Amino acid sequence: MPALAFIVATRLFGARADDALVRVLESGSIAFSTMLLTLELRHALYGRLDAPLSDLGRDATQTLLWLALAVPLLWLGERHRRSVLSWGGIILFGLATAQAVIWQAVLGNPLLTGDPVGRLVVLDVLTLAFGLPALLYAVIAWSRLGPIELQWVARIAAGGFALLWLTLEIRHLFRGPILTLGECGEAEWYAYSAGWLAFAGAGLAAGLI
After folding, report:
1. Using CB atoms within 10 A of its CB, is residue 16 exposed (0-12), middle (13-18) or buried (19+)?
2. DSSP 8-state class, residue 52
């Protein structure tokens, strides 16, 4: 209800004037809407609001939510020249990137933890944690949303998470649900080489375009 009230008030007062009150209302709209969606997501996934980061697949949906919210905020902020919306998008982008890098790529990486990633290749935890974030980062970079520094971070994150997703999916294909089991054979090494070459070619083509 507070989120809805802030949004309605922003529409009403924004139609009359553009002043500090409108900026405060915009900030409240972003803050309460983000808290609502984030806490509802945590409640739906864990049944409790204070659940710590513990499950890579579930926690990755929070990163996806924040990135998905950052995209329209950055776009609307630039299109309508609303600094509050732009900063809201930047903050959400920063929070999502911090969680994606520190938790998903490092601390919760199944290559280090040994946690199962699912039976089906591509339709697995790896796509949630690395593939879809790479896609959203690519959208931000390709659309040139936000300041130039944010665009560079989005480009690096898109390439890094895409390469990590590709590498771990190849390992998933050969090792099964638990990536730490088994030994690397010649076929797996050849698959890495082929996958990385294809990735390099795609990256070069995207860069030229």
Report:
1. exposed
2. P
CB 94 within 8 A of CB 73: no
Predicted confidence (pLDDT) per residue in 161-170, tens digit: 999 999 999 9
Same domain? For 37 and 94 the reply is no
Per-residue model confidence as pLDDT tens digits over 5-46: 999 999 899 878 788 999 999 999 999 999 999 999 999 999
**Closest alpha carbon to 96 in 142, 146, 50:** 146
Contact call for residues 92 and 70 (beta carbons, < 8 A): yes
Instruction: Show the domain range for 1.
Output: 1-51
3-state secondary structure of 167: helix
Is the residue at 189 inside a domain? Answer: yes
> Of residues 182 and 99, which shows the higher confidence score?
99
Q: Are 29 and 6 in contact (CB under 8 A)?
A: yes
Count structural domains, the chain. Answer: 2
Mean pLDDT of 143-152: 95
Retrieve residue 122's tokens. 């591509």
CA distances from 180 to 39, 80, 109, 160, 177 (A): 33, 49, 11, 21, 9
- Are 7 and 74 part of one and the same domain? no
Between the CA atoms of 115, 120, 123 and 127, what dihedral angle is there, to the nearest 10 degrees?
40
Residue 125 has pLDDT above 90, yes or no: yes
